[in-house]
């Protein structure tokens, strides 16, 4: 009798274990099936034994919902077991917040664009925001592909971005598509030609001033300038800064020492040749050249060395932009003024965050300092 009773208990235990295993297997199978077809909030609610509304309240951190900790734990466990991921689009529709900013920029592989994006992305991450990047590659030298730019902005708006950053690879006035006005928008390294949108640009004038101040400190008083296209904002600001620095020292910029050229090494070479060849005997020749970009400085190096002159012994050279693949590899290494692309990207995100929160911003146009980077050419 005792043996029969023991055998009965063992059989009952075995049956219970089998039923539990079957239940567990069924639950795991259901979870796997749910994951395969895409887990929904309803699946989570069913697994946790609560209503779909309760799950929604917990996942959106509704403090006024009055849901117990035990229920919250059950829902969290169900979310983890099922591998549920909230639908970002639906959440954005409900909350009117997506945690995404859009950035439209030309030629995303260009070094300047990469630096702007990095600065913006790093700042966005600190703010628990994310970037959606849409390129608008230039069709020609006159500006971006307008059709692609319009489409890029429309696509970002379809993703319900909270705001837009519109970035240019060189400082200029731009006409931004009207659709950008549907959300807060900040311009980086460019300004709105219509004067409607806030912008963040380099302080070109201060950059020109600090470059010439450095040459004056080194004892140079006869300074040549290899200029860009004289009508663009970068050239205007940098040249004004150079004149201000000279005026503060009681000097004037000699028009004979200012030559404009293409913003290339060839353009810099030709402009430097023009300046130097005006003084073949050396008397009156400038002892320093301020080149308004690093590529032009590279060409100026060749013109100087071809004439048997040394840098910085005979002629000091300062560039502008801090293009790393040029400035750091010229011999001697080029002292230059850096364009603050990462800083502008970061400030763009901070400004956009203020606008989306309804807070005031510092100014319609914010200027970012251009620091001097000392190397060996002065």
What is the topological layout?
Elements: H1 2-37, H2 41-48, H3 52-59, H4 69-82, H5 88-95, E1 100-105, H6 111-126, E2 130-135, E3 138-140, E4 143-144, H7 146-158, E5 163-167, E6 173-174, E7 185-188, E8 191-192, E9 199-202, H8 204-217, E10 223-227, H9 233-248, E11 258-260, H10 265-277, E12 288-291, H11 294-306, E13 316-321, H12 324-327, E14 335-338, H13 341-356, E15 365-368, E16 372-373
Parallel strand pairs: 1-2, 1-5, 5-7, 6-8, 7-9, 9-15, 10-11, 10-12, 12-13, 13-14
Antiparallel strand pairs: 3-4, 14-16
Helix pairs in contact: 2-3, 2-4, 6-13, 8-9, 10-11
Name the features:
378 residues, alpha/beta, 434 Repressor (Amino-terminal Domain), Rossmann fold, six-stranded parallel sheet, 47% helix, DNA-binding, repressor, transcription
What does this structure look like?
The protein contains 13 helices and 16 strands. Residues 1-25 have low confidence and may be disordered. Helix 2 (41-48) packs across helix 4. The chain is α/β, with parallel strands linked by helices and 378 residues long. The strands form 4 sheets. It has a 6-stranded parallel β-sheet with strand order 2-1-5-7-9-15. Strands 11-10-12-13-14-16 form a 6-stranded mixed β-sheet, with helices on both faces. Helix 9 links the parallel strand 10 and strand 11.
